[in-house]
Amino acid sequence: MANRIRLTKWLAASLLAVFVLGVLGCNSASQEKVVAVQGLTMGTSFSMKWVDADESRVPSIRAEAGELLALINQQMSTYIDTSELSVLNRAEAGVAHKVGPELFAMVQRARQISEVSGGAFDVTVGPLVNLWGFGPEGRITHQPDTVEIEQLKSKVGYTFLHLDPAASTVLKEYDQYIDLSAIAKGYGVDQLADLLEARGIRRYLVEIGGELRMRGVKPGGEPWRLAIEAPRAGTREVQQVISLQQGAVATSGDYRNYFEEDGVRYSHTIDPRTARPIRHRLVSVTVIADNCADADAWATALMVMGEEQGYNFAFEQGIKAMFTSKSGDGFDSRATPGFVPYLQEPTGGL
């Protein structure tokens, strides 16, 4: 599909976009109500909900949101041949290539997270994702040849990208392929939230494919409550409910996008450090952060690290995260201290 950014985290693993709201209705005292705009983008859906007493600006906000999302796709999609990122990916190695401020900012932030995470997050991993059959080139049923894996691994690495902030240029040492799908969806959420902020709207919940950012409270003063999906294939039920009045939330999981060969399950989540799918018990990670781009990227990085390394890293770095791992026939969840205050009682199936 030519109009989407490739998603490597699979929608079913993300936060359910069925918010635990009760009723999207009016507040009789002030005539405030939750109004909404929704549509399709980046190979998935998006929605914008905000509290308003005036619905007259819904059409203009819908139009602005559509234009904004189209622009982000044109900047950062790997599915659009003419996008700015696609042009960068085809650019000659060893030559500094000037890019726009938005694309440069995302590549720069991705590189910073790569450095802090020790390479668990790496936007140059795309060729390996394709090799393992989880990219736009289609699925495979057999694991790739070891020689081919190692050949690609030698060219994958965020250290091969050299950035010049003053000139807004990116230089690739080799023919690196940059894929921002693990951060661009969150960036899109942030941009939609900023659109509402620019309109003076301070009570909202914005979502793209289950990645969210919210602020304020609903009519009646209740905070936004969000349902995290249970990591069970073939069902849609609530694992946990969280509540917050400001921030962003993203989830990464591996339990629905995989292939099996000789009884071995190969996850779509590729560890850039090993060039192979993750093989630990962790099935999903949910992160709360100030902005959705960071939440998006850190959820991926922690998912790659696994239940022990990921938890310890998040604890040390002060990242608000919840880890859900396989345990016998069920699952165990563990949250960092910063995440615990947001937890609510699960409400069962949706």
TrEMBL record:
Main EC class the enzyme belongs to: transferase
Q: Which GO terms describe its cellular component?
A: plasma membrane
Q: Which residues bind Mg(2+)?
A: 182, 296, 300
What EC number(s) are associated with this protein in UniProt? 2.7.1.180
Nucleus as a keyword of this entry, yes or no, is: no
Q: Which domain of life is it from?
A: Bacteria
In terms of Gene3D superfamilies, this protein maps to: ApbE-like domains
UniProt subcellular location: Cell inner membrane
UniProt keywords, alphabetically: Cell inner membrane, Cell membrane, FAD, Flavoprotein, Lipoprotein, Magnesium, Membrane, Metal-binding, Palmitate, Signal, Transferase
Pfam families, per this entry?
A: ApbE
User: What is its membrane topology?
Assistant: Lipid-anchor
Query: Cofactor binding mode, per the note?
Result: Magnesium. Can also use manganese.
The question of whether Cell membrane is a record keyword is answered with yes
**Principal cellular location given in the protein's record:** membrane
Q: Which reaction does it catalyse?
A: L-threonyl-[protein] + FAD = FMN-L-threonyl-[protein] + AMP + H(+)
Q: Which GO terms describe its molecular function?
A: metal ion binding; transferase activity
Q: Which cofactor does it need?
A: Mg(2+); Mn(2+)
Q: What does this protein do?
A: Flavin transferase that catalyzes the transfer of the FMN moiety of FAD and its covalent binding to the hydroxyl group of a threonine residue in a target flavoprotein.
| Family (UniProt) | Belongs to the ApbE family.
This protein is called: FAD:protein FMN transferase
